[in-house]
What does this fold into?
Amino acid sequence: MIEMKAVRFSYGKRSHLFDGLDFSIDTGGVYGLLGKNGAGKTTMLKLAAGLRFPHAGDITLFGHPAYKRRPDALARLAFVPEEVAVPPIRIADFATIYGGYYPRFDAAKMSEYMERFEVPRAGRMDQFSLGQKKKALLALAFASGADLVFLDEPTNGLDIPSKQVFRRMVAESVGDERAFVISTHQVRDVQNLIDPIVILHEGTVVLHVGVNDLLSRVGVKRFPSERDAADGGAIVTQPDIGGVTALVPATPEDATESDTLDLELLFEAAIRNAEALV
It folds into this structure.
């Protein structure tokens, strides 16, 4: 689907945002793209989509150079940006135009997603609230039938019920041949959804690993104090009520104690010392 090799990119004369970035997606899944503000998550997605051009290196999208933006490759990619922009037309008219670019666009699914998201069908899209605009574009992306879907901060602007709908739709739509890449700071919104996890830091992918693999290496434990956590081999800690929560190396005795990960702890560990996680 995507292959990025030795990619170099910068904005203007500033230092390189990426200097030798390698990344690839060759199978389905819900890829969680995490990173600090300014780490380059959105730029990375735009490079993969051919919306930005690398200064060096190679990027292919479905086997073709991404910068060429071939129609047959773009027909397999849907992209919902963080900052949404919609035309001053009705959603039905926009769906007709949008769907024309996607051979597998499913109008019935589009109608279903609109209903589940409770998006109004009347009125112009530019008069929608931010949340309504975001939900309309998400519905279009899900109905597109695209093999690869980029979602940049998809839960921004969504209320709690809509976030629940979003998570169900992703879980229902992903498959061995369909991948979602979710770039987000709202890790709690996708805590139990993303797999594998991709962490971008200082211009490189410092972690790209499946959740089950991680669970065989690290776990989450609570300790009464920071000192107890340190004695217990904590990689990183986070204070909570009555003690601390820590990410610790898994052992044969406790490797199966937890079937979830704390993504905030994991992110902190990855940017401090990714080698402790591999």
